[in-house]
Amino acid sequence: MSETLKPSEVRQRLGDLLDRVADRRDDFVIERRGKPLAALVPFEKYRRLQKAAELEFLRGFDEEARRLTQLQAKELAKRVRRRDS
Prior knowledge:
Elements: E1 3-5, H1 7-24, E2 28-32, E3 35-40, H2 43-67, H3 70-84
Parallel strand pairs: 1-2
Antiparallel strand pairs: 2-3
């Protein structure tokens, strides 16, 4: 379970919190006025969450791509190429 901290606590204890995240794999939720603002998590966990989000995005994209006609797919590819150049 995550420990909840206020931004002022994070500022005062940042070194200790980073050690706990790195060494003990603790994670923390930073809240202001009872609303979550951010999380302090081990980098490995962050990377797993990021990869999971990317995979979910790609799954959704794949489902949408299957619904495109060949003409729609070509037009989409043209727009992407124009935007990237």
